[in-house]
Amino acid sequence: MSTHELKPGVTTDVGPDYVRAIAPYQAGKPIEELAREFKLDPATIVKLASNENPLGLPASAQRAMEAAITTLGRYPDSNGFELKAALSAHYRVPAEWITLGNGSNDLLELASLALLSPGSSSVYAQHAFAVYKLATQARGARHIMVSAHDYGHDLNAMFDAIADDTSVVFIANPNNPTGTFLPAAEVGAFLARVHDRHGDRVTVLLDEAYNEYLDPELRVDSARWVEQYSNLIVSRTFSKAYGLAGLRVGFAIAQPRLTDLLNRVRQPFNVNSLAQAAAIAALNDAAFLEQSYDLNKRGKQILTEGFARLGLEFVPSYGNFVLVRVGDAARINLELLKRGVIVRPVVGDGLPEWLRISIGLPEENARFLQELTEILGAP
Ligand SMILES: *Cc1c(COP(=O)(O)O)cnc(C)c1O
User: Fold this and answer.
1) Which of 51, 100, 104 to mutate to test the pocket of ligand 1 (most atoms within 8 A of CB)?
2) With a 6 A CB cut-off, is 172 part of the ligand 1 pocket?
3) Most CB within 10 Å of its CB: which of 13, 171, 288, 327?
4) CA of 104 to the centre of ligand 1 (A)
5) pLDDT tens digits, residue range 234-281?
6) Which atom of ligand 1 is nearest to the CA of 102?
7) How far is CA 193 from CA 140, 223, 279, in A?
8) pLDDT for 327-344, tens place per residue?
9) What is the pTM of this model?
10) β-bridge partners, 251
11) What is d(CA 49, CA 53) in angstroms, rounded to the nearest whole number?
12) Which residue ranges form the domains of the chain, and what is each CATH number?
């Protein structure tokens, strides 16, 4: 996906209408950029804006990359043999069912490239991950946005919204930026209904970027759904709980009819050598994953207790971030920036009164709550 940013107000007169209609993805502000803008010391800035793992890179992954660095004169393994073998063992699916991506965003792009075109459509939920709309628009396909229910996906309405020209349904579970979650029984029933009614004509892309943050009793072995449904693609990422956001590595699991298709539009060297090495190490680092989960769970508690104390509405979150209603989000965001705290405005997601706060280290969460409390106390 292109994240090429045009300055607001700049118009362009080249390219297809459907590309010019795209509102570029707004990424979380980098620390260095804020430091320059507001003349702040980067060391004092807290960034809780991009759902990154506050523990940073796992040491195991760093060691794996140090060992792999001597191979960088050569192209990466185009087939990602070792990483696919590790994923295949971990998820108990054939390696031939796995597609690697340059982040899981790459897989969303590959799926839209392979399945959408002018004359077809995708279905996704209001307030769902912004990339579903972007990837659809870039193909010149129609996008059908289905109203959210309590900030989450309304699967019945999404089922009803599937049109004759629909080729993809995107589901984020948990969803970003709202943090909502659909229980396994609901997703399972939806998959069965879609496959019964539409067979292989409609592909469901189940995006599980935050799966590892779910409490164990809520997790589902979605690879088993892939065995059952030939129209399902499940995507996962190493960017969140595994702590490898900067490396860009994710993967999809699907039966060969879909995996083959994704592979046709994939750039041959889309996942670099360091990313492949680091992902194998991270996948085997159960201790790091557990630490990430525990830290997130405690941080979520601290943030939501803080919001309750301040009388702020929030959406119960199943991810590593919390969506909170602050009212004049643009003003609160600016005040936070001036104080060196970066969070994520979600006005572009249709949530102008809300901010999305990524869960950080204990001291980062405390600093954010302290600044927010001061800002709200002094309107
Ligand atoms: C973060 C996120 C992704 C993954 O992004 P990558 O870094 O490209 O793997 C995918 N889907 C959702 C819903 C996300 O929030």
Assistant:
1) 104
2) yes
3) 171
4) 6
5) 999 999 999 999 999 999 999 999 999 999 999 999 999 999 999 999
6) 8
7) 27, 18, 35
8) 999 999 999 999 999 999
9) 0.95
10) 100, 236
11) 11
12) 17-55+287-376 (3.90.1150.10), 61-285 (3.40.640.10)
